[in-house]
Design a protein that fits this description.
It catalyses: Exonucleolytic cleavage in either 5'- to 3'- or 3'- to 5'-direction to yield nucleoside 5'-phosphates. With 458 residues, the chain is an alpha/beta fold. Among the domains are: 94 residues, OB fold (Dihydrolipoamide Acetyltransferase, E2P) (Beta Barrel), CATH 2.40.50.140; 129 residues, 3-Layer(aba) Sandwich (Rossmann fold), CATH 3.40.50; 36 residues; 46 residues, no CATH class. The chain is 42% helix and 19% strand. The protein has twelve helices and 13 strands. The strands form three sheets. Strands 1-2-3-5-4 form a five-stranded mixed beta barrel. A five-stranded parallel β-sheet has the order 7-6-8-9-10, with helices on both faces. A three-stranded antiparallel β-sheet has the order 11-12-13. The longest helix is centred in the C-terminal third of the chain and has 39 residues.
């Protein structure tokens, strides 16, 4: 038989006598391996610790499961990842159910995870403590972030299941203590999608407008009945805890019984051991409130009466120290009487003086005296009129004079310069007659004497 592996090397592959093994491609070999692995390991359950957990933008989850001796890659598609009842984290021990397959692109095998569960209560508590430490480090549980509860809220929002006994207990307790307007936001309190609904309900209450058709609550109660840690796990989810911590409305967390504790209890402004206790913490007892108000009213009335009584006593004591009315007004009355008598006498003297003055002035108003005064005034008026007539410039015209005035302005001309400046003159004569003349502006001529001077020989 010929050696299928001869010693001599060949550059080009050729058929060898006795060798019937055909060369296969890498893809064909990878496909055979994939079919073998998927046929042999079509259903597996793996227990291991999560490592390298990563959620892609597509929603698919990629991780590794490891133990002390080996590591295997795993992938969980988006649909199965959204259905997980908890948030996987690195270091958490889980049990993954799925099928084994290969990834030819990288020559590696991996498990396609269809379901993932925590490996016992210990792993669940480890996950809880790890998430608690993370959120506490961010300050979500700080006491300084807690908001005070309103004393008597007008509207209370309740986030719980609409069909359970919890909502009935809360409503009955509120009705017994102090009837209040309650708005219920129905949600699932366990199972797939419960955490998302609870977080959306808390944020929905926080986003309600103050004047909208649905009244904005003054207080929110997040409540659920008792159960195992798996039943209460929705209230440990990071989305719920962050929604409770970021809510601007005061929140009471009432999840489970008194011995149950969830992360939402730490994030809420107040933790109630039970839903019924949450209703008791939310509102005061109306009867006690009325009794307190009545006691305050009685005390206020008693204090007011006491102050009124003491004020009356002080007023009476002060009134005894005041002087009597006659003592205060006696001197003033006497002074008023004296001034009244003086006023009467003064008026009588004033009337007598005025009457004497009137008699004297009346003598000066007799007709004979008035006639003489009128004649004297007429004589003075005639003398003044004669003086005025003598000063009238037109009176000189009667003696052969003329009055000269400028024709344009009507001003009286008194010298030659004013006449040359006016140019045109108007002459006024007796009887109101006028003559207009013009002033010549040429140079004056030099007239020679009648006899010329005798020439001289010298």
């Amino acid at each position: 038989m010929a050696d299928p592996f001869p010693e001599t090397g060949r550059l080009v592959a050729e058929a060898v006598p006795g060798d019937n093994a055909l060369a296969v491609s890498v893809s064909e070999l990878a496909g055979r391996l994939k079919r073998v692995v998927e046929g042999e390991f079509g259903h597996v359950r793996l227990r291991g610790e999560i490592s390298g957990y990563k959620r892609a933008t597509s929603g698919h989850v990629y991780l590794c499961l490891k133990d002390e001796g080996a590591v295997i890659d795993g992938v969980m598609w988006k649909g199965q990842a959204l259905a997980l009842p908890f948030q996987p984290q690195d270091g958490v021990e889980v049990i993954a159910t799925g099928r084994l397959t290969t990834y030819p692109g990288r020559s590696k095998y991996q498990v396609v995870i269809e379901r993932m569960e925590l490996a016992g209560a210990g792993a669940l508590m480890a996950l809880l403590e790890k998430l608690k430490a993370k959120l506490a480090g961010e300050g979500l549980f700080a006491a300084s972030a807690k908001k005070p509860l309103p004393f008597m809220p007008r509207v209370i929002g309740v986030v719980t299941s609409p069909t359970g006994a919890v909502i009935r207990d809360i409503l009955h307790r509120l009705e017994d203590r102090c009837p209040t307007h309650v708005v219920v936001w129905p949600v699932k309190v366990q199972g797939a999608g419960a955490a998302a609904e609870i977080a959306a309900a808390v944020r929905g209450f926080d986003a309600l407008p103050a004047d909208g058709p649905v009244p904005r609550p003054d207080l929110v109660i997040v409540a659920r009945g008792g159960g195992s840690i798996e039943d209460l796990w929705a209230f440990n989810e990071e989305a719920v805890v962050r929604a409770v911590a970021e809510c601007r409305i005061s929140i009471i967390s009432a999840v489970g019984h008194e011995t149950d504790t969830s992360l939402s209890d730490f994030a809420a402004d107040l933790r109630a051991p039970t839903p019924t206790a949450a209703a008791e913490l939310a509102v005061p007892v109306l009867a006690d409130l009325r009794l307190t108000i009545e006691s305050y009213r009685t005390r206020t009335e008693r204090c007011a009466r006491r102050y009124h009584q003491r004020g009356g006593e002080k007023l009476a004591a002060a009134a005894r120290l005041l002087p009597k009315r006659d003592q205060l007004l006696g001197g003033q009355r006497q002074k008023a009487d004296d001034l009244g008598a003086r006023l009467d006498r003064g008026l009588e003297r004033r009337v007598a003086t005025a009457r004497g003055l009137l008699d004297r002035q009346g003598g000066a108003l007799r007709p004979a005296v008035l006639g003489r005064r009128v004649e004297a005034a007429r004589a003075r008026l005639a003398d003044v009129w004669r003086l005025v007539e003598s000063l009238n410039p037109d009176r000189t015209l009667e003696r052969g004079y003329a009055r000269v005035e400028a024709r344009g302005s009507g001003d009286t001309v008194t010298d030659a310069a004013a006449a040359r400046a006016a140019g045109a003159l108007r002459l006024h004569f007796r009887g109101g007659e006028t003559v207009d003349v013009a002033v010549e502006r040429g140079r004056s001529r030099a007239y020679l004497s009648g006899k010329p001077e005798q020439p001289t020989l010298l």
